Every structure is written in C-alpha cells, then in structure tokens.
Amino acid sequence: MKLSEAKQGTLVRVVDFEEGCDEFKCKLESMGFRRGDVIKVLSKSFFGPIQVEANGAKIALCRGQAKKIEVEPI
Questions:
Q1: Helix, strand, or coil (residue 30)
Q2: Could you tell me if 6 and 71 are in contact, meaning their C-beta atoms sit under 8 angstroms apart?
Q3: Percent of the chain with pLDDT over 70
Q4: Cα–Cα nearest to 58, from 74, 43, 69, 36
Q5: Are 12 and 74 in contact (CB under 8 A)?
Q6: Single pTM value for the model
Q7: I want to staple 17 with a disulfide (CB 3.0 to 4.6 A). Which of 1, 25, 53, 60 is the partner?
Q8: CA-based end-to-end distance of the chain
Q9: Please, are residues 60 and 49 in contact by the beta-carbon 8 Å criterion?
Q10: Domains delineated in the chain
Q11: Is the dihedral of CA 53, 35, 47, 22 positive or negative?
Q12: By CB neighbour count within 10 A (0-12 exposed, 13-18 middle, 19+ buried), where does 53 fall?
C-alpha cells in the first residue's frame, strides 16, 4: 500500500520508492527516511500534509509525495 493510504496512528515499514523519483528519494534519505525504516503516521487529515515520524525526526509530506512511497503495515 502507499503511505498516503495508511491510517493515522499506525506503524508501517518503508518498502520502496516509486521509480523515476531519484531526487525525491535522495531528499528523503538525507532526512533519515530509508527502505526498511519503521515510521509512525502522526497526523493525517482529509486534506493537507501527512505528518510522520521516522528515526526520531518528524517529517511533513504532501499527499503527492506520500503516494510515491510504498509501505507495509506492521
């Protein structure tokens, strides 16, 4: 499933990033957001950004970015 589909308060593991978004992937990796990381969905409203916590860092992603991240529930 995509990160944009995860429910608020759940823990998910990053499986992969969408093909062709190398710049986006590098940006996330520089913030400590990598494949295999367990992240928590902190807040997710009907509209607006999705806030997650990854490796102790809080990151806000727009829905378009969250759709490019493949995750699995834990």
A1: helix
A2: yes
A3: 97
A4: 43
A5: yes
A6: 0.85
A7: 25
A8: 12
A9: yes
A10: 3-73 (2.30.30.90)
A11: positive
A12: middle
